[in-house]
Write a structure and sequence with these properties.
two-stranded antiparallel ribbon; 353 residues; globular; 15% strand
Length: 353
Amino acid sequence: MNLKGLFLGLFISILSTLIFLLVCEFFLRSTNFVSTPSRMQPVDPTSPISHFEPNREFIYAKGWNSSIYAENKVNDYGFNTIINFKNLPKKNRIALIGDSYIEAQHINKGKNVAEILNKKNINIFPIGISGAPLSQYIAFYKFAKNNLNVEKFIFFIVSNDFYDSFLDVKGAPGHHYFDYSNNMELVLVNYKPSLFKIFIRESALVNYFYRQLEFKGIYRKIFDNNDKRYQKNTYNNIDQKKEKRSREAIDEFINYISINSNSNDILFVLDADRISIYDNLKINEEKLQSKLFKYFQEYAKLKGIKVLNLDNYYVQDYKKNKKKFNFENDYHLNEYGHNFIAEILYKEYFNQN
């Protein structure tokens, strides 16, 4: 084959590939089951709280056939909720702070814990972003207290909140972390999407493969098989150093909240080892996850802060109804889980039946 024929063949191959990708792009855009971008905004000292582009809708989907599919609505402050903060009554405001469990992209708009309680005339709203650990919860707390006139705070605590609070452990852009080497100072890691990322995240094809099929997660499973930090949100195989650091993160977080708040204005809600509940109808107290929850509860009570531990509530409800609180292919709370926790909060914390 001469050089001209070689280049012609290469050109035809590239053109055919581009046409194929364009056809896939247009096909996916014409369907209703593909994720659309949430459009995370830049985070830096001038805008230190991670949030999405305000006042827009997007779709969260997971799995090749969108086995999890949810329509989401971003509010006026850039958080995933139908509750617009500016429209809330000025008094008796309650912030529900957390990570992806409170962000709740996995369920349809209007059906997360805070939105359910809000419909019961409780002046509560969610502040949650995926990947936020305890250190970021402090930043959310400051933001809500200083900018939204929040009087009471509920924190939803899950097992990957602890060790991920350190700059040298996670350090993902867009969040605040404890700097272990600098007296546990709270440090912000800036986030600024490149022009390429801003462009590429609008692609239906990219969203389908990267977000929906979770190619990043597949890569971790294949090439980073020793990293157990994100395995069903539990710390099954964590070592003693990680346990020690996790306890230090808990201490730092609770100390800050107790010093800067009236203890009566704070509630910590603890998730539990749901996997053991499904398997054995009881909590596995030997898992480090359970040990850290127990330590968190004991230290919070020592500081005079109320704790709502969900483990027994989960156990009793699962014994009775045999319904899981999370998706079959994802450990995040499903609609049943959000309704369940909203009802527990409504009865146990707000003292209403």
